[in-house]
Amino acid sequence: MSWQAYVDDHLMCEIEGNHLSAAAIIGHDGSIWAQSANFPQVKPEEINGIINDFNEPGSLAPTGLHLGGTKYMVIQGEAGAVIRGKKGPGGVTVKKTGMSIIIGIYDEPMTPGQCNMIVERLGDYLLDQGF
């Protein structure tokens, strides 16, 4: 399966009538493996900040998580594995795998829990597959 198929078929899937707003799979080096058509143009320093927070949990909390210039307030996650962010009625979930980070962005009516489930389920699968 191509990386694009993981984005299209798994991350952008429908769950209880809702979809993520945007999603991507990005290598630890910042290279974009696959993304949805409307995924924001991310800057290398934004990806570096996310990778750094996985290595030093809590480092993003003071400044927020930035994606494509949008700032998300960092909320609870799992140190070294999952970062969650909130902005108004939407937010973001970022899951780290051995070789990539999986990013899902959502807006209402999708709930944070639905976004977490989609992103983290794919992340756990890729971890099991050695990615």
UniProtKB/TrEMBL annotation:
SUPFAM superfamilies: Profilin (actin-binding protein). GO terms for cellular component: cell cortex; cytoskeleton. The keyword Cytoplasm applies. CDD domains: PROF. Its main location: cytoplasm. Pfam families: Profilin. It is found in: Cytoplasm, Cytoskeleton. Binds to actin and affects the structure of the cytoskeleton. At high concentrations, profilin prevents the polymerization of actin, whereas it enhances it at low concentrations. Occurs in many kinds of cells as a complex with monomeric actin in a 1:1 ratio. This is Profilin. It comes from Artemisia annua (Sweet wormwood).
